[in-house]
Design brief:
Layout lengths: L6 H14 L3 H8 L3 H18 L9 H6 L3 H6 L3 E11 L6 H7 E2 L4 E10 L5 E4 L3 E2 L4 H7 L11 E3 L7 H6 L3 E3 L12 H25 L10 H5 L1 H17 L2
Parallel strand pairs: 1-6, 6-7
Antiparallel strand pairs: 1-3, 2-3, 3-4, 3-5
Helix pairs in contact: 1-3, 2-3, 3-11
Amino acid sequence: PQRKTTLEQEFLLTVMRLRLGLLIKDLAFRFQISTTRVSQIWITWVKLLSKELRHLIIWPSKGQIYATLPDAFKRFYPKVRVIIDCSEVFLETPSSLEVGACLWSDYKHHYTFKFLIAITPNGAVSWISPCYGGRTSDVFIVRNSGFLDLLEPYDTVMADRGFKIKSDLTMKRCYLAIPPSAAKGNQMISDDVAVTSKVANVRIFVEKAIARVKWFRILSTELTMIMMYRNRDMDALTLQTLRICELTR
């Protein structure tokens, strides 16, 4: 049968849903096609763009990292290879209690999926993990996503306090840079306050990178459980969004 939409229109439909988070019914009305056809176009283009834009997220060599190291890192953390953090995206309430238990995030107080994102010191996305349920801990994702296999001896990984991965990095002959924690009921000593401030000043790069991702409203609204059950589509959607972020940096 003859196509009712051109390739240009299908691409426009896809990026409109990505950027604006428009509903399937809304897009069907705008493009004068059925909701089934919108879903088919959306899924097809998400997978296609994820594959075609895969070269936009790369794991740079140490030489490339050090050649583009910002002044703030050169001064305080010259050996940092990567900054990591986890981000979560809301999901609609599942009908299954068992599935809901895996997706519930105590941190967000909502059903979510979670992924680990790695940022170079100059703010580029260098790696992203597969998607996990919101219940999954940050440490579990680091250990099981393949991230540790990318590291080389003497790399320094910067993270937040919640990443209790010092022993894992030690096994790889790597180092962990995190803000110091104060003992319960006690104030930080002046040296710890200074270290916390230094880490916060350079960790702003990963916060900005995640903010760029959430600029795409499809990842700022509740996603459907249908996409969650089709886990490869969820991974492709997240990867595609991050790759477009890098394209528009």
